[in-house]
Amino acid sequence: MSMDRRFRFCPRCATELVPQDDHGHRRATCPRCGYVHYRNPVPAAGVIVLRGGDVLMVKRRFAPRPGAWCLPAGFMEYGETPGRCAVRELREETGVRARLTGLFGVYAGFDDPRSRAVLILYTAERVGGRLVPGDDAVAARYFPLGALPRAIAFAAHRRALADFRARSPARTANRRKNELDNPSS
Ligand SMILES: [Zn+2]
After folding, report:
1. What is the DSSP letter of 185?
2. Could you write out the DSSP letters of every residue in 41-95?
3. pTM of the model as a whole
4. What is the three-class DSSP state of 123?
5. From ligand 1's centre to the CA of 80, what distance in Å?
6. 46 touches 128 (CB < 8 A)
7. Quick check: 149 and 64 in contact, CB under 8 A?
8. Residue 77 C-alpha to ligand 1 middle, in angstroms?
9. Which residues keep their CB under 5 angstroms from ion ligand 1?
10. How far apart are CA 66 and CA 61, in angstroms?
């Protein structure tokens, strides 16, 4: 495991950090005060909101991956719960107010250049607001599950959408019907 090169000096006493082995991880450590720089993924939260079976997505304005689409989601603020973060990000990015209806899944994100992430994804239903893209979005709109945009910004969002599609009632109904039609398969 390589040491985090982004921090050279101790944030507590400004001594130059040195790599030190810690249970198999090389961590930037302060030889003077003992501070250890732990590098952890950042939790993010987001929502799947449907309208008539279509899923709400946001087109990104800023890097990383401007112009690509993603589910409404963002990094948690310090002191915020995952649920409040999900509802806040939705409101900021789309104008839509929603109520969470359940936890959909948790996904590891390895392809965001800002940080590795843990995406906590909820299902939610709209309770108000007006669909208007926020400052960091070029567009916000609903897509049919069978016709999602080709450019989706992050692998975790692609996997979540694939999982959601696989579990959606229409597909489940079709699978049940197939099983009934072909009991041996
Ligand atoms: Zn120090």
Report:
1. -
2. PEEEEEEEEEETTEEEEEEE-SSSSTT-EE-SEEEPPTT--HHHHHHHHHHHHH-
3. 0.85
4. strand
5. 29
6. no
7. no
8. 26
9. 10, 12-13, 15, 30, 32-33, 35
10. 5
Sequence ranges of the chain with CATH classification 3.90.79.10 = 42-157
Its CATH architecture, for the domain 1-39, is: Single Sheet (2.20)
Task: Specify the CATH superfamily of domain 42-157.
Answer: Nucleoside Triphosphate Pyrophosphohydrolase (3.90.79.10)
Give yes or no for residue 123 having a pLDDT over 70: yes
Mean pLDDT of the chain: 91
Count the Cβ atoms, other than its own, within 10 Å of residue 82: 20
CA of 40 to the centre of ligand 1 (A): 19
Domain with CATH 2.20.70 in the chain: 1-39
